[in-house]
């Protein structure tokens, strides 16, 4: 593995952390003003410091972590890094305040090169937590939009012709037959289907009106993860959400109805 460290890294990190003396800081600032490669190195270290925390969080309990942490500890304990951390801290600079441990971690990652990146890319398809975090984004988007919907919004029932056209367009975009959806949920009045785009993925929102609990939506989105997931209930922005995945699609029911009500409705389309 190529060593990507640089003789000025420790000094640049100290500059970002406010650990240089006034004289040292002024000298380095003068160099940065005319040395474009040094400026680029400073920007790279700054970006690395911002990304180190989520990178290690994503590693989770993966096997390479123990080896990485051991090498990271050795880097932090090195003489050059320890000198940076032990110098008096001057906070008169204008850049964001860095925490010393993150700065040291950034330096260690430069020394380790591409190890973290390879570990992350190797586990991303296996890490259910990362997948769930990405999946939560579309549920949050649905909740934010659905918060604007009231019974008045859904006061009009679409004509049979309009309903059929909406469902046909949504089915074609998703590659899933939705023609039976209007009658899928007993006790709910179908109020139309809308087609959205969520980061390049088609998202269909099918609206219903519950005489007791108001608007309820059944949403379907293409699921790149392609995994089967059993129904799960959660509270999101004041809504009850039941979500699951099947047939290459992620699905949810959302509304202000009790969890038991939405869970019972979900069984109508998951069983």
TrEMBL record:
Record has Membrane as a keyword: yes
InterPro entries noted in UniProt: Anti_sigma_zinc_sf
Domain of life: Bacteria
Record's keyword terms, sorted: Membrane, Transmembrane, Transmembrane helix
Keyword flag Membrane: yes
Transmembrane segments: 102-120
Full protein name: Anti-sigma factor
Organism: Kaistia nematophila
């Amino acid at each position: 593995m190529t060593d990507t460290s640089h003789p000025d890294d420790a000094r640049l990190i100290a500059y970002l952390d406010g650990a240089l003396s006034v004289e040292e800081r002024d000298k380095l600032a003068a160099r940065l003003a005319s040395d474009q490669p040094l400026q680029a190195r400073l920007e790279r270290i700054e970006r690395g410091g911002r990304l180190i925390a989520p990178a290690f969080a994503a590693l989770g309990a993966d096997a390479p972590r123990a080896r990485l942490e051991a090498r990271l500890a050795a880097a932090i304990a090195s003489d050059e890094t320890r000198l940076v951390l032990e110098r008096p801290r001057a906070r008169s600079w204008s850049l964001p305040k860095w925490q010393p441990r993150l700065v040291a971690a950034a330096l260690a990652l430069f020394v380790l090169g591409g190890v973290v990146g390879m570990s992350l890319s190797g586990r991303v398809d296996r890490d259910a937590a990362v997948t769930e975090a990405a999946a939560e984004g579309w549920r949050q988007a649905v909740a934010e939009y659905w918060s604007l919907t009231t019974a008045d919004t859904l006061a009009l029932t679409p004509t049979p012709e309009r309903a059929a056209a909406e469902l046909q367009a949504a089915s074609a975009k998703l590659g899933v037959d939705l023609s039976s959806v209007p009658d899928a949920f007993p006790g709910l009045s179908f109020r139309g289907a809308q087609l959205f785009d969520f980061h390049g993925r088609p998202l269909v929102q099918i609206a219903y009106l519950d005489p007791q609990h108001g608007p309820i939506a059944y949403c379907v989105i293409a699921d790149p993860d392609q995994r089967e997931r059993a129904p799960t209930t959660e509270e999101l922005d004041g809504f009850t959400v039941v979500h699951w995945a099947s047939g290459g699609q992620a699905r949810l029911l959302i509304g202000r109805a009790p969890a038991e009500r939405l869970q019972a409705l979900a069984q109508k389309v998951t069983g």
